[in-house]
Amino acid sequence: MNRKITRREFLRYAGLAAGATVLASCGAPPQAPPTQAPPLATAPGAAATQVPTKAAATVPPATQVPAGPEPLTLPIVKQPMTLTYWVETNPNVAAVAKNYNEILCYQELEKRTGIRLDFQQSPVGQGLETFNLMIASQRYPDMIEFGFGGRAGGASTPPGGPAKYLKDGVILRLNDLIDKYAPNFKKVMADHPDWRKQIITDEGDIYGFPFIRGDPFLLTYTGPILRGDWLEKLGLKVPTTLDEWYTVLKAFKEKDPNGNGKADEIPFTPFQNPKYLQGVRGAAAFIGAWGMQVEFYQDKGVVKHGALQPGFKDFLKLFAQWYKEGLIDPDFVTYDRKMLDAKVTGDQLGSLIGNAGSAIGNYMGLMAEKNPKFKLIGAPYPVLKAGQKPTIGQQDFEFQGQVTAISTANKRVVESIKYLDYAYSPEGTMLFNFGVEGVSYKMVDGYPKYTDLVMRSPDKLPVAQAMCKYFRSSFNGPFIQDKRYMEQYYELPEQRDAVKNWVVEKNDTWLPAVTVTQDESKKFATISNDVTTRMDEAIAKIIVGQQSVDSWDQVVQQLRQMGIEDAVKIQQGALDRYNKR
Amino acid sequence: MATQVAKRVNRGKRIVSHIGLGQMIAKDWKRNKYVYLMLLPVIIYYLVFHYGPMYGVIIAFQDYSITKGVWGSPWIGLENFQQFFSGFHFSRTVINTLAINVIDLLFGFPAPIVLALLINEIHLNPFKRLVQTITYMPHFVSVVVVVGILVDFLARDGVINNVLVVILGISPTAFLQQPEWFRWLFVGSGVWQHIGWGSIIYLAAISAIDPEQYEAAMLDGASRFQQIRHVTLPGIMPTIIILLILRVGNMMTVGYEKILLMYNPMTYETADVISTYVYRQGILQADYSFSAAVGLFNSVINFGLLIFANWFSRRVSETSLW
């Protein structure tokens, strides 16, 4: 019987359909199964021959590989293979490429090794959340690039550190595999035992292939910055002691160096994104004159906390004095990045603490047309008395926690190890740092010089982004960063001179990336949180003058009540374990 | 189900028929099934996304680890709660949360009511619509923009300080750096932003009042103001009470986003609330079970307050949620 569907039936089916769609939409998200390229019938024509030797001309000759691991030969596989690789998308890369496979060095890698990477990229800025989701889903890709190693006292990875991921069966312990299959990496670690110490866990396990900054020049990039043109105009020399800084700042305030007839100059701000005292906290500028830092640091193997040191009160007294005389921006507590930019480009700020790249390079680039005299220079870290040399200045460790680990779901472990090992070979280092010869760099007198494709990009891209189209040295990855990249990245002489001024010899008060044990981590996190909150508040109020410098003694009492000494003991244990590695 | 169908005819009085529960449901379904079907997706949505995930609250009693998952993480009982209660800043965050909510209740709750009453008195329709549109608009602006405007206006050289200096001769104050100002600025900017939107529901309630009541009041010689007091307000009182009960059910909650945007170390002592403390401890340190514990604590208190408010309202008036 072909009757028309009644209104009643229509509604019934519509309702059921609506219900069904709701249920369907709650289903599991689509999975990305680890893929393997099906074996091809023909031998891969794309398999590259040995790397041309002209690239090796400037690079140390192929070294003797100790008998043990097999030497690495290319291509790694006879038939093309694909491995999955999780990575947090770098914002500069996102500006120029949708997928990391568009980066020239990876295309070249695929040609040389026969292995293609299927990248699983997190959205920009959501690395930690996406990483946690991936871990919770227990569907791991073959390789995972992430900051497993965390940072000293930092909070980018869950407590327990990398050892936790090893114990919980997420990633593999690589020591034996490296011994057998990774000759290049093994050699690098043998040549640099201090690097090896940083990349292993307290138990001695290697958990991934690390990003290492291979030269001291790469480790210092922040320091005190002043308006060089104002110094010249007022006939002042670059300050080196705290008293000289006082003179300079007072001159900035009173002598109208920006020449507009108004006393609107702001001599100094200690802000560095994102916190109001970050310049002092992160780089230990100014406070380093008393031989200490704001938070945890070490003094010949003994862990100390700046807040508990008597010198801290002197530091507060100095800054409170400067604030009272109007030498520090009255609003410095409520700064954000935009405010800082505005005050620099508005010709008001006289000095700050910043990076050679993002401060000096950025601001001078912005102001070049508006004010050709605008000059930012880097001053050495100030000391207490004339003639002293600075003992503390910003300096990263070669290893900052970023590694590429091999997950337990990987079915092609040997090939993965070999693939990752290539990056530590001389040819691999060149590839990751400079790209492909003839395209992104040319050898000039034995020095790899970036071509105009990178430095003067035809798409008018800033250098940092143009670099991301060809190689990875401008952001981290599983390779060793070469200092010749940074020497060219710093285009202005002021930048290079700044770094030279900032480098401090015997800069050994920084705490390396030590790990707190899992049991202590919860307690440590709570104490740290409370301590940081209290300190932020008290320091702000004392500098601004709302509370007297002597009230700091009371604050220290409160910090002791919160358990700061226990936190110091926990860090001491972590440092001792680190030193024993 | 055993049902008794009994019909009692009571000599001219009402016929009372008793039917069982099962039959009642069947009858209701037969008559209203399409309405129920329409409701089904919504019910499923709530079941799946709101009731279903509730089991996750058990991580409040665990030391939750991402890699071990909910069922593999070790149990630590009330330790997370102890950690929360013994925190150095615990009492401060609770006091600040309650203080902000009390101020918001005292000033922010009546504000939309007053605005609705005022708008109701406007007889020039174009003007009425203009006022409504202008007052609704801030609701749609993102809180980030609102705080950005606030920071700019309250800066040392911002609009507010310029007015104070030029007209009143007072030296400029950095308002956002003074703890005494924080709560008022927080609540005040919230009132400005949401007063228009909040007045909609009261305007709807006002329009439902029978005009005959107004006529009767006018006949009795009531002035405009007396009409508001004796006709309008009692007319919308059920709406006010319901919304008040719901508002009381939120006393332990202050959203962290706006606080984060507005506070700085100078104002921690009045601005640091439970949610910002949990943000620092639970999210930044990835201590998810701690955040879950605090969230559970908040929800339990809120729920308790809600039940109390409802009971009280039922005792004192005839209106209540249930």
Helices, strands, pairings?
The complex is a heterodimer of chains A (581) and B (322).
Chain A: H1 7-25, E1 81-88, H2 91-96, H3 104-113, E2 115-122, H4 127-137, E3 143-146, H5 161-167, H6 175-181, H7 183-191, H8 193-199, E4 209-213, E5 222-227, H9 228-234, H10 242-254, E6 266-268, H11 278-283, E7 296-299, E8 302-305, H12 311-324, H13 337-345, E9 349-355, H14 356-367, E10 376-378, E11 399-406, H15 413-422, H16 426-434, E12 441-444, E13 447-450, H17 452-455, H18 463-467, E14 480-481, H19 483-489, H20 493-502, H21 518-544, H22 552-562, H23 564-580
Parallel strand pairs in A: 1-2, 1-3, 4-14, 6-9
Antiparallel strand pairs in A: 3-11, 4-11, 5-9, 5-10, 7-8, 12-13
Helix pairs in contact in A: 12-21, 14-20, 21-22, 21-23
Chain B: E1 6-8, E2 16-18, H1 21-51, H2 69-72, H3 79-85, H4 90-108, H5 110-121, H6 125-136, H7 143-154, H8 159-168, H9 179-207, H10 211-219, H11 224-248, H12 256-262, H13 268-271, H14 274-284, H15 288-316
Antiparallel strand pairs in B: 1-2
Care to give the gist of this entry?
The complex is a heterodimer of chains A (581) and B (322). With 581 residues, chain A is α/β, with parallel strands linked by helices. In chain A, 41% of the residues lie in helices and 12% in strands.
What do these coordinates show?
The complex is a heterodimer of chains A (581) and B (322). Chain A is of the alpha/beta class and 581 residues long. Chain A contains 23 helices and 14 strands. Chain A has helices at residues 7-25, 91-96, 104-113, 127-137, 161-167, 175-181, 183-191, 193-199, 228-234, 242-254, 278-283, 311-324, 337-345, 356-367, 413-422, 426-434, 452-455, 463-467, 483-489, 493-502, 518-544, 552-562, 564-580; strands at 81-88, 115-122, 143-146, 209-213, 222-227, 266-268, 296-299, 302-305, 349-355, 376-378, 399-406, 441-444, 447-450, 480-481. In chain A, the strands form four sheets. In chain A, strands 2-1-3-11-4-14 form a six-stranded mixed beta sheet. A four-stranded mixed beta sheet of chain A has the order 6-9-5-10. In chain A, strands 7-8 form a two-stranded antiparallel sheet. Chain B has helices spanning 21-51, 69-72, 79-85, 90-108, 110-121, 125-136, 143-154, 159-168, 179-207, 211-219, 224-248, 256-262, 268-271, 274-284, 288-316, and strands at 6-8, 16-18. The two termini of chain B are 29 Å apart. Chain B has a two-stranded antiparallel sheet. In chain B, 69% of the residues lie in helices and 2% in strands. Chain B folds into two domains: 2-56, no CATH class; 89-316, MetI-like (MetI-like fold, Orthogonal Bundle). In chain B, a hairpin with a 7-residue loop joins strand 1 and strand 2. Residues 1-10 of chain B have low confidence and may be disordered. The chains are: A alpha/beta (581), B mainly alpha (322).
